[in-house]
Amino acid sequence: MDKLKGVRAIVQIYKKGIVAGAALVFTAVLMAACGPTGPANSAGGVDPNETAAKVNGKTITMQEVDRAVKQQAQGQESKLSPLELAGARLQVLETLIQQEVMFQKAEKEATVPTDEEITAEINKQKTQSGKSADQIEKEMKDQGMTEATLRDSVKKAIAIQKLVEKVTGKIEPPKDSEIEAFYNGNKEAFVKKKGVKLAAIVIDPANAGEGDQTTDEVSSVAKAKEIADKINGGQDFAALAREYSEDQSKFQGGDLGYLAEDDLKQAFPEEVAAGLMNSQLPIGKVVSVRAQGKLFILKLQERSDKDEAVTLESPGVRQQVVESLGNNRKQLLAASYQAVAMNEAKIENFLAKKVVDNPNELSGARPAGAAPAANTASNANAAPASNANASNANAAAKPVANANSNAAKPAAKK
Q1: What's residue 77's pLDDT?
Q2: What are phi and psi of 373, to 5 degrees?
């Protein structure tokens, strides 16, 4: 039912600027969302303590804005033209304003997390990142983050997530008539494509840093053989995946979910895909393959040899429709709640006013050391930070509990 993925609306409460969880700096999506805490790294000529905006009297400084732009540009901010940088600042500021509005609402609704909850979430994300303490510290330093700003970002993320959960918790389950109408209106989406369901233990020869037991080809092959011997000895595949796999799917016991045949061919070499689709390969069989520069120990859990239409009575289908309808309604309610909150807030965007008042004086937006404007044509193909979307421009992007199996799927082969 891979088409159904396009119909489902998973509540990403920052899809339109509403925070939905704590995706942290070490997952490369955290944007600084706190007040100034260190030396200014602002672009040339811009006072980092200058007020960029106020939300109900709460100040957002240029330092916060430029820290977020730096994160979004991934070290390429010096290549941005004055216009690109000005656009990036305005867009990032807009998302910071939205976040501050929602956080102030969270404070009023008493959904701000405790210090213990913040610490637990940070530790959880650090563990799941798979990175060493030194790697995390370096990334935070590169992005101008401190432990204090990190904690404040996580606090805001969790607070707003809880707020939205509180608001959307008022939604009642859909009626049977609504479920049937949804199914009848989207029958083309309810097709189980020809494909397989897989679980995997992934061994990566690359040295991922502290704690990585497989740092080269020799150690990886040895580890894969050790794991294969344990599987052959009757040990549980899911338990071994949780212990040994070097992939995010380890948290789901190695479950990669269901892959349609086309997706399978994108993820693995064609001969591997053909072998897994071969009806002669029994369900439950474990095979070892190489793909994407890694070693995969795959367990075939299910196979469908043809496309099959499913009904509301098929296992799991009715529940999926209920979840889809519920999530659509939650998304709409969350977006509407934010729209009302934004309308009620007193917002003063001084950065935008400055641009309007000085339309021909954008050179001050250029970072220190940037190339002259005449050279910016060579950067035309660079992805400007002004294209930042809300999910990349804030302290959070997904619900903390939203660890769906799709995120664990292997990347498409190059």
Answers
A1: 72
A2: -60, -30
